[in-house]
Specification:
Elements (H helix, E strand, L loop, with lengths): L1 H17 L8 E14 L6 E2 L1 E13 L4 E16 L6 E19 L2 E19 L7 E2 L6 E11 L5 E9 L23 E10 L1
Antiparallel strand pairs: 1-3, 1-10, 2-4, 3-4, 4-5, 5-6, 6-7, 6-8, 8-9, 9-10
């Protein structure tokens, strides 16, 4: 929780700092992305990529001619598919609210950014076989997920294109055990979020 408060504090500081600069230097906008996510680690078997969606707001605050701070608050649908057969668990769907602040360096007209993110878990669901309705909800994932994000942004006159990766550094397992569903869980293994993004900045 202290990490989450720190990141939110940094974002608020960034907003306050930006007000001292001339308005044309700020870049406040909307971000929307398609993501490909999965859950790595030893708790689950046969994870496969899952397509999801991310959307929210961002603020780019210049510090000098080369450096800036990229801040964002997003909603992100993530999780993982699994290749476990028609009678076993085949999908975990997760929804996170994410906050991040990343130092950003200007390369010619494009940016490269890297820094921490923190996510708060809002929803979690388990799906069996080809069922469209979830079998379990409120899975035993930790509420907070901490990790590292990196973006490469191609800046355009109207729309920017962004390619990114987010690697979970914390173990999201908080006692996951899908009792009665296969493959077996409840092993106390690691669960880590991993996602790749292709997005637009408006």
């Amino acid at each position: 929780m202290r990490i989450f408060a720190l990141i939110l504090g940094l974002i608020i500081y960034t907003l306050g700092f930006s007000q001292k600069k001339e308005r044309p230097e700020l870049d406040l906008g909307i971000k929307t992305s398609i993501n490909i996510s999965t859950l790595s680690g030893t708790e689950f078997e046969n994870p496969r990529p899952k397509f999801g969606y991310t959307a929210g707001a961002y603020l780019e605050t210049p510090l000098d001619k080369k450096w800036s701070l990229h801040s964002e608050i997003l909603g992100s649908f993530r999780g993982s598919n699994f290749k476990n057969g028609d009678t076993a668990y085949t999908k975990i769907a997760l929804f996170y609210i994410e906050a991040a602040i990343l130092p950003s360096y200007l390369l010619d007209k494009n940016n490269i950014s890297i820094g921490p993110y923190l996510s708060y878990l809002g929803l979690s669901s388990l799906y069996i076989g080809n069922d469209q309705k979830s079998k379990l909800n409120d899975l035993n994932f930790k509420d907070l997920d901490f990790g590292l994000a990196s973006y490469y942004t191609i800046n355009g006159p109207i729309v920017g294109f962004q390619f990114g990766v987010k690697v979970g550094l914390s173990n999201a397992n908080n006692g996951v055990n899908f009792d009665g569903y296969f493959p077996k869980t409840g092993k106390g293994g690691e669960i880590r979020n991993l996602s790749f993004e292709i997005g637009l900045l408006f």
